[in-house]
Amino acid sequence: MKVLVVDDSAVMRKFLVDALLKTGIHNVGQASNGEAAVAAVMEGNFDLVLMDWNMPKMDGLEAVREIRAKGNNVPIIMVTTESEKSRILDALKSGANNYIVKPFTAELVAKKIRETMSK
């Protein structure tokens, strides 16, 4: 499985990559903003995207909308501090497949990946 980790925080990207390694996922790409994420998804052959919401240049929600508008259906899990129910619904309506609220554990990341990939 090839996963793209998108977050403007290098520390958070490292945490997510480490969580993926613990689940046996070693093929991981990284992007630091929504624009880079859209470009990476359109160029790469990713099986899953872990997308932060609040980032510079293009936020995660805009990136999800752009990826979907371009016809790409890669599963996307939003990983964010946005925990308000209406915000979660916005993300899901925009094309995100699942949602993780920060802070989280590696076990939760693994669980959400299993849920998302089994749909």
The biggest beta sheet is recorded as: 5 strands, parallel
Proportion of residues in β-strands? 15-25%
* SSE run: EHEHEHEHEH
Distance between the termini: 16 Å
Structural class by sheet pairing and helices: alpha/beta
Classify the fold: give the CATH topology.
Rossmann fold
Oligomerization state: single chain
Rg, rounded, reads 13 Å
Question: In the CATH hierarchy, what is the class?
Answer: Alpha Beta
Give the fraction of residues assigned to helices. 40-55%
Instruction: Estimate the mean pLDDT confidence.
Output: 94
Please give the CATH architecture: 3-Layer(aba) Sandwich
The number of domains: 1
DSSP, total strands: 5
Low-confidence stretches: none
Helix count, per DSSP? Answer: 5
CATH superfamily: Response regulator
Strands of the biggest beta sheet: in what spatial order?
Answer: 2-1-3-4-5
